[in-house]
Write a structure and sequence with these properties.
By secondary structure, this protein is mainly beta. The protein contains two helices and 29 strands. The strands form nine sheets. The chain has a four-stranded antiparallel sheet with strand order 10-19-20-21, with no helix packed on it. One of its GO terms (molecular function) is kinase activity.
Length: 353
């Protein structure tokens, strides 16, 4: 009896966003809506029928008789009776009544909120990419322009989009809050914090474009994580092969210097860091950078269970290798990450992440 499901009205005094929605919320905090079925197709009145038919769930508008939402399952065999249930973790499921196997679940189709037990990212077994999409505004539940996605490659991070463009990439503070799974069948992030019985914990993509981890204890709200918070959090704010330091200044990495065409006052012109000399296999020295956010590039090579010395040797043997790092894996092992292209979205921290 933790969650309730029913119809709600997002705004009672705003006629431009007048409409009713089928949603799930916390029973003790009815204003904390965690999932919405028909967010982009609201009901005109507060009367609707939720029914199971032909291996699907339908929400029909009683005024028009038309469906405003359905699970849209295809090629499913009606082999036994189906039952819809709302679980204590907030997951609304369609299951076979006898075998209890799940045919469909709301956790696979999140709106703007990640609950404990949910996963974001790519699920290869279902060919689903689960993302968080913000509300359009404070009182408008329809899909907004801000989206939180998980990178679909090894050494994944979270990406915050605005109108289709990457604005921010998460760093070590976020990585410490989530369980990260990276296999051939799944690349996903889930909350690694388990709330106690008296608290509520949610990660939400806000309509303002920020990502916030909130905890509710009684009537009090506490922010455990908020991103972004400073200028260095902007994606690749300093450009390729440079980093944003703790004073929010841009610095070229060792072996690079400021260059390229640049003119003050031109909005499309920016300084760039250019290599001082051409990359060569004869180069046998790397500059060590500490307390850094790892670069973002899909042009990287990952080897598991490889120590730092061996990782360095492998980078030396690859003429295209521009950087390497030895990172901890979430199962307790280690892996060698080697970058083979420009280094993007780097920044430094006062302490290790």
């Amino acid at each position: 009896e933790i969650f309730e499901m029913g119809l709600f009205k997002a705004a009672t005094r705003l006629p431009e966003v007048d409409g009713w929605y089928l949603g799930i919320w916390y029973k003790r905090h009815r204003t904390i809506v965690v999932w919405i079925a028909n967010r982009d197709n609201p009901l005109s009145k507060s009367t609707a029928t939720l029914k199971i038919s032909n291996t699907n769930i339908f929400l029909d508008d009683d005024q028009s008789g038309r469906p405003v939402w359905e699970t849209n399952l295809i090629n499913q065999i009606d082999i036994e009776p189906l039952v819809a249930e709302l679980h204590d973790n907030g997951n609304f499921v369609l299951i076979y009544s006898n075998s209890k196997s799940i045919l469909w679940q709301s956790f696979d189709y999140p709106t703007d909120t990640l609950l404990p037990g949910m996963k974001l990212g790519w699920d290869g077994s279902k060919n689903l990419n689960k993302t968080l999409t913000s509300w359009a505004s404070l009182f408008e539940p329809s899909s907004g322009s801000r989206v939180f996605k998980i990178e679909k490659w090894t050494v994944s991070h979270g990406l915050l989009y605005d109108t289709g463009q990457v604005r921010y990439r998460t760093g070590p503070r976020y990585s410490n809050l989530v369980n990260i799974t990276e296999t051939e069948e799944e690349i996903s992030h889930s909350l690694n914090i388990t709330p106690n019985v008296s608290s509520i914990l949610i990660l939400r993509m806000l309509y303002t474009g920020s990502l916030e981890l909130m905890e509710f204890i009684g009537g009090e709200r506490h922010t455990l994580f908020y991103f972004p918070v400073e200028e260095c959090d902007f994606y690749n704010t300093c450009g390729d092969n440079s980093y944003c330091n703790t004073n929010s200044n841009c610095v070229c990495i060792a072996g690079f210097q400021w260059g390229g065409q640049y003119a003050w006052g031109l909005t499309k012109s920016r300084r760039t860091c250019l290599r001082k000399s051409h990359l060569s296999c004869q180069e046998k020295e790397f500059k060590k950078l500490t307390n850094m956010k790892l670069p973002d590039t899909q042009f990287k090579i990952v080897d598991t269970n490889v120590g730092l010395e061996e990782c360095e040797k492998r980078c030396f043997m690859n003429c295209n290798c521009t950087a390497f790092a030895n990172t901890d894996m979430h199962d307790g092992g280690s892996r060698c990450v080697m970058w083979t292209g420009d280094l993007l979205d780097m920044r430094s921290y006062n302490t290790e992440g």
